[in-house]
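Please, structure for the following, as tokens.
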Amino acid sequence: MMNRRRTLISGLVAARFAVSASAAQISRPVPATGAIGRRKLGSLEVSSVGLGVQNNSRKYETTVPCRPEQIALIQAAYDRGVTFFDTAEAYGPHECERILGEAIQPFRNRVVITSKFGWNIDPETGQRRPGLNSKSDHVKRTVEGMLRRLRTDRIDLLYQHRVDPEVPIEDVAGAVKDLMGQGKVLHWGLSEMGLKTLRRAHAALPVTAVQNEYSMLWRGPEQDVIPACEELGIGFVPWSPLGVQFLTGWIDANTRFAPGDIRGGESRFSPENRPHNLQIVELVKRWAERKQAAPAQIALAWLLAQKPWIVPIPGTTVMAHMLENSGAAAVRFTSNEISELNSAVRAIEVRGERLPAPVLALSGVEAPPKS
């Protein structure tokens, strides 16, 4: 299996690099999107499976992937019908925006790109500072930097990455509305916000999408956030839809995480909890065999089956994995099958927290009231 993957990766990358730099700028044909399909986040139409561009400058285990390979991967995703690409200023910081901007130049007007603001990052240097910052002037300066790095004149969907506990969400919406008036932002959304903040934000400026962690491994949004999105007509974009690789079967009871790998600080992957939580991986593997699909495809197809306005954004630095993930939309469940699978998933109680405590504390935060 590994040899087949290496052969596939080598062949695709070699084919991509065979195109000359000048030829790469030639207008690319519009890809067929039938296999992947299309969905709507509010009024925004995207491919039913997107691509998360987060670890393409630095992997979980802190190694740095080959930049030309990452650009080739993004372009190959477009050729497969992926038209929804997600990144953030915090990824790098700034470097993933640069990688995405370079990769999509030949077909920028045919895709939807997102980015996110909200961390206290210097808009020019990328230096990380303590805390969060969604003050109006900072948001506007941050977007100017995004536009330069992404080589574009507009952000199709701009998220607040985390709620700033010192800035009323109405002020944030006002800053985004100003950017919309200038044509620099087309839609906006929130990530990991408190439920009251979502409603206030939507009342101030209609929200297109919410981006929260959601997968078979973490089903928290099912309780309140997804019902609220359904009520308000807001799309839902699950980040980490493969449970930071857990649902692919790449992590087992003997896996040890490298220093700096955030997964090492998540108690759901601790030696005490992981053997229990592997039950859900075994469930995915059984369904993969049953449907003649890869485990990752089952995990993504399960998300797609929950609501027609859910669009997962699996990220990867490996060509073969991108090809696998983008094929998830072809996996279909009958109504009886999805009912059976849902029951089996919900019968497994995942043990441990999904993030290290300091990071988790930034989720579900409510913005202060407008004075």
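Residues 1-26 have pLDDT under 50 and may be disordered. Residues 274-291 form the longest helix (18 residues).
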